[in-house]
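Holo prediction — magnesium ion.
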Amino acid sequence: MTDGAGHHHHHSTPGELTSVESHLADILGSIRPLPPTQLAIPEAEGCVLAEDITASRPLPPFDNSAMDGYALISADVTEASKDTPVMLRVSGEVAAGDTGAYAVTPGSCLRITTGAKLPGGADAVVPVEDTDGGLAQVAIRIPAAPGDSVRYSGGDARQGEVLLPAGTRLGPMQIAVLAASGRARAEVYPRPRVVVLSTGNELTAPGTPLAPGKIWDSNSYTLTAAAHEAGCLAYRHGPIPDDPMEMLPAIEDQLLRADLIVTSGGVSMGGEHDVVKETLSRLGTVRFRKVALQPGMPQGFGTIGEDETPIFTLPGNPVSAYVSFQLFVRPALAALQGASDLSLARVQATLSEAVRSPSGRRSYLRGVLDGSKVTPLSGQGSHQIAHLGRANALVIVPEWETRLPAGDTVDVLVLP
Ligand code: AMP
Ligand code: MG
């Protein structure tokens, strides 16, 4: 196969590597949405609706005034103008929230405020600006037609109309609709509870001094933040040492509160220090494989415990852990939430510099996307986080490419 730029495509990947797509498909095959639950508005905020929200009443629920002014009979003021105002008797006032029965008769009107129920007999409101503002009687300076400055019942939504379909995430605007339609609670997918654990003897808590040979733990913070950003309740567990006796109990302790577990580190290709892989392999429910991916080749996924809680074991290099999260964990978190709004936007852009990629693996290079141009960051090593703070996108280099020249068009994932 040849694309427009003349590159040859070989879609197969070397036998021992699993493609990004099939690894993700295996993951999604074992993720079910969390059971929906009724939550009050404050708790439902940020969650995805599991039901359609319909208007239980017409919106607005009654005919009301759109302006502060005078509710009147439009036929009384058809001849009104600035030079020849029509005088009407003001028989009282109706304010927003008044529940009394008000009515106007020919030749009279009522002062009215925005949102007040339109009095019986009235069919229009003239704004106070177009009058002399009189209290006992008022000079009306413009003509009115039926419906002027009136907000009719059902004019916004009919009773029974779907206002928010299931699958909608409840942000501030959707919360507005929910409350305005009289709902105090809604059936939503709860925020998944994600437990993040980092592993490694070398890890030291940020804020404490570094002994020689140690580094500060960044992954547990990164992944917790990423899970939170993806709509989850994220719990961070500090570093676990590379000790099989500590690893499994520490993970099992989290099963009570976790809907999904993410670990980092300890899954490289072999060696007694890859304690996550060693420990979880023995359970037989977590599968470790090499994915045709750069960074992030060693991946583990499976379920553990009675509830078959999904667990991701991500590689330890900080960039690998982050990229793996966005490619594999994020879609799983979306599936738990019944959400369709978490996929990363994919756009095309022009490379401003040449890039390299290992043969047979798909690269996701950190880059800065600026309009239709993308600039790869210098320092693409999986451990290189120095420039990570500037990245807003991942440049995709297909498996069958080892080098792309500047000026090529590439697919780019926009980072959240
Ligand atoms: P591992 O996957 O455990 O072999 O770790 C690969 C590399 O990532 C090593 O250089 C680790 O020191 C580093 N690393 C592992 N976990 C973390 C972490 N939580 N924060 C920062 N770097 C880490
Ligand atoms: Mg390690």
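READOUT: The chain has seven helices and 29 strands.
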